[in-house]
């Protein structure tokens, strides 16, 4: 009877192993502490401003902390609009690039292209900002103008104060807009999304690919019926990670937009704003209370990206393709 | 370029194109799964010519459109329409869709890569004005005003600041990051899974929030001044999750058979980590570190909040503002003066060269195969043996000479002479060692270059035997 009970195993660790495990656990604890301190400190510093503003912090558009009127309604909407424009442009580009790398590119240049995508992710954001401000701004306004002329009846493409029949109207109303900032951010986040999508596309099982082709499918038929369903989780997760990055982008947005503190739903029109560029713009001249208000804005941004990231990693981890990555 | 719907049933090869030995299937050729047929080329070329002509007609005669972007857009749409009509003439509907998608995917990929190339080239071309001046690299901006020509002033202060800040950040993040990555992999528990979740969520921490955190804690609460050290702390907070995540992925790729073999031979956990896991994943870990460095070097917003701004060279990270390259770019282009903007673009080019160099190094290290590493280690051993053999008698002679001078030293009353002698005796082996080290480094460099060239050649000839460790930091 007693033979059925398995012998309990005891592990007697070497002192070196005990030390290693201790140090490693210590490293983990330190990192966890640092990461939680980020949230704790922001919340601690933000408490003062939040206790003054209360719920109006979410609904107020103006940003005048020292007169008591401040809220993130305008900047938050601006941030989300810029991020959505960026994702809307970046996701098709990323899907195309990821499919090209995994399915269409000649095998010889494939690893080179993968390296190139990684390199794109490492290009400093200030360089993208320079490009956006000095090149794109001047060259994209005719396109903005055309979109607003053609699709102006859709509210978000409308531009105030422009007479469509005036051929000599100035184009400055189309500069420094959400649209231009969104394009620049799109090219910054496209590599990250591409890199995640490429990874899941490449993991699509060979047997199923061969099966689809053997049944007479075209290459696109195979991609549509095997690769994309397999990589769906990774595609959604990659998009959300890109969205998280787009929300937090500072310098490139700061260089391009001209800040306004009203909710600006017209993405083609001059004037936009974002939480991160608000912080970069105002932290220098802020009073102590103003700094606290900026911390509250930063905390909002932090919580928003954190939620999106948790969601993204959950989606990726649950999908069939993400289980091994 | 085509996968035709009709597939010959005779070919027994797999779709990956694995070669079946000649003897087993005499007379059968490997089926080509991709290849360009003459009709594809003709229809694509025809559609391209037709769309160009049509767009020209539209632009010059009919529509009130103008501008290169509009021209490209219209031409592209026309091309797609014409091409699908041409393909539809002799193919079935699935094939037509396949072709349209093929063109679309190529276009999207081309747009992404062309934009990357353009962003890089644009900065270098605009900065080319400032780059040829030697003073751009050897002076700071303390004596140069906004109206001064490019032959005055430079970005030495920013280069020095970037290097100091990134070195401090690396001194913090490398030990902490690698320890944590090891913890996540080697000490699995509920707690380590929790840490991993947090770290993964923090990889997309907005960089301005990292700056804000250091600003709120170290500068406002603890009363530190804005300094290079505060900036490196902010960069560290941003780099840490990125490094941990990519190192974690690399460590997970170490084959468990190796670990089991090590444990099975009686090694403890620490010995397994030190002798098996770390050496196996070394190149991947180095790649992870370098990629995190490339990200950290280019961040502007954390530095903007924490380092302060100065136009002069400051080598002390603890006191006074210290500017870095991205921050310098940001400040330069704020000015309306063309020379300052040119300096900004020049600085951007310098920054990009640094990032590019880091990247190339990461690729070379990440692309190393075990075989190449083994060969190099062997060469190193042989070299050290070759160096050490002649050095040994020399060292013996020096030691003997030193011993022989002992009575003289005792006899001599002058401390200076004694000091000089012992200094020389101490210096001679030191000099020999330094010489050997320099020779070793040169040799090492040469073997790195040779191995790199060989690696390139072998990649050109065939695909490498192991794919380079890739990092996909989100």
Class from helix and strand fractions of chain B: mainly alpha
Total of domains of chain A: 1
CATH level 3 topology of chain A: MetI-like fold
Helix content of chain B: over 70%
Q: Supply the CATH architecture of the largest domain in chain B.
A: Orthogonal Bundle
| Largest interface: pair, residues per side | A-B, 114 and 116 residues
Write down the CATH topology of the largest domain in chain B: MetI-like fold
First-last Cα distance of chain B: 32 Å
Biggest beta-sheet profile of chain B: none
| CATH homologous superfamily caption of the largest domain in chain B | MetI-like
Shape of chain A: flat
CATH class of chain A: Mainly Alpha
CATH architecture term of chain A: Orthogonal Bundle
| Tally of strands of chain A | 2
Strand arrangement within the widest β-sheet of chain A reads: 1-2
What does this structure look like?
In chain A, 70% of the residues lie in helices and 1% in strands. With 325 residues, chain A is mostly helical. Chain A has a single domain (50-324), classed as MetI-like fold (Orthogonal Bundle). In chain A, helix 3 packs antiparallel against helix 8 (219-248) and helix 10 (275-282) runs antiparallel to helix 11. The two termini of chain A are 45 Å apart. The mean pLDDT of chain A is 86. Residues 1-15, 22-26 and 462-474 of chain B have low confidence and may be disordered. Chain B has helices at 38-62, 68-90, 93-127, 135-138, 156-186, 190-202, 207-221, 228-252, 256-264, 269-280, 282-297, 301-306, 325-334, 338-366, 370-404, 406-411, 415-461. The two termini of chain B are 32 Å apart. Classes of the chains: A mainly alpha (325), B mainly alpha (474). Chains A and B meet through helix 1, helix 3, helix 4, helix 5 and helix 6 of A and helix 3, helix 5, helix 6, helix 7 and helix 8 of B.
